[in-house]
Amino acid sequence: MSAVTKEKREKQLAVVRERAGQGIADTVIAEELGVHPRTVLRIRQRHDIPSLWQRPAPSAGCGSVAQYQKRGCRCTVCVAAHNARHVEGRRGRVARRDTATFVHGVNGYRNWNCRCAKCKAEASAASARERAARRARGASR
Questions:
Q1: pTM of the model
Q2: Nearby residues of 102 by Cβ (< 8 Å), 6 or more positions away
Q3: Out of the domains of life, which is the source (predicted)?
Q4: Domain limits, the chain
Q5: Count of CB atoms within 10 A of residue 127's CB?
Q6: Rounded distance, CA 109 to CA 115, Å?
Q7: pLDDT tens, 29-88?
């Protein structure tokens, strides 16, 4: 490494530390330094400076839809939260009942509460396929 490069890096680090302390976003710091925002991110990571590029991890605990969807938690509390949100969404869709926005079939049966012949037949066939797949892999339900 040449002395100029080292000096330049030290200057960049000083600017990143100063601006990070002020709560300035990585994109603004990058623009000021004339570098790509990822460069600022790497400087922060190398020197353990919290980054405004990376979002903080969600603080939601069990019982939130985020835990179910993003973290894959399948405890009874998270499953219940996910199910409640899904039921609430379905109620809203059914209340609107804008038949032009959904395709008849399994989607219509499960998400729009449509009970036309096509939706019933396709949902029944899909349920049979899902049941057979569960039994094939050894699941009881």
A1: 0.45
A2: 93, 108, 111, 112, 114
A3: Bacteria
A4: 3-46, 60-96, 101-141
A5: 13
A6: 6
A7: 989 999 988 888 888 888 888 766 555 455 567 888 888 888 788 888 888 998 999 888
